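Morning - zinc ion inputs below, output right after.
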Amino acid sequence: MTIKELIAISNKEAAAERALRLDDKLRKIYEACPELREVDSRIAELKGNRLIAVIDKNKDLINICDDEISKAKEQKDLILKSKKIDPKYDEEEFICSKCSDTGFVKGKDGTDKVCSCRKESVLEAIRDSGLADYGSFDMRNYRNDYLGDEAGRSKLLTSLVSVMMNKDNSKDLWLYSDKPQSGKTYLAICVCKAAVRLGKSVYYIKCEECGYTKPSVSEEIKYADFLVIDDFAGEVTQDSTCASFINSIIEARGAAGRKTVLVSAMPKDDLISTCDMRIAGKIRNCGDIK
Ligand SMILES: [Zn+2]
């Protein structure tokens, strides 16, 4: 499930929780103040009668009801004042004041971010995005100077984030190629997780798994807002199942303007000369993360 679907579910949970909390709050207030319970049930009854009068088009009865309702409301106001009860006692309260239970807050740059109250949904979405094995990979622990070349890493991060956030629409297919052991996987996973927190659907997969996943996962790979294919290598794409799958999803995703990043330890030219021909043609025209 995508983070948006998970948040929609947790929104329903929040609504149920708000209703429960309101029930509980009302029960306590009515216990402490039975006269308030009485006047509230009187008002509810009068409103019911008024509705019937409206259906019957009985003007006299409507007027009587209106009169009685306003008298009951005056009485209620007196009770609230004398007992120092908040006039909003019968309204639901948001569980999370930061996001008003929507699950999203505005970030500094104006983009929507998943609120901290939905940590569970984020974790679940991360697990569902092919990232279950990478619990400890996190942008908050990420440092550009981790392997030296701080400026270079910082540029790579910016470049990956701008592709993920659709800021660069010149290409839909991107190649992030760098030497082995340069922290590519860590960086790519951090950006995938950041995408989840931004409410995007994301999938991370190793090249060799392409074409060999469950049909439901293949669908997710096709439709995710952001897809990373890691450990991308020419010889892996010589497997015909893998090649057909990658070729078809690159085409489907490109047609829908969804961004795909291939992460590889091989230079672009080597990939072009060793990949399945259809894929090589696409890599020739892809954008470069650098
Ligand atoms: Zn919240």
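Note: The two ends are 31 Å apart (CA to CA).

O.
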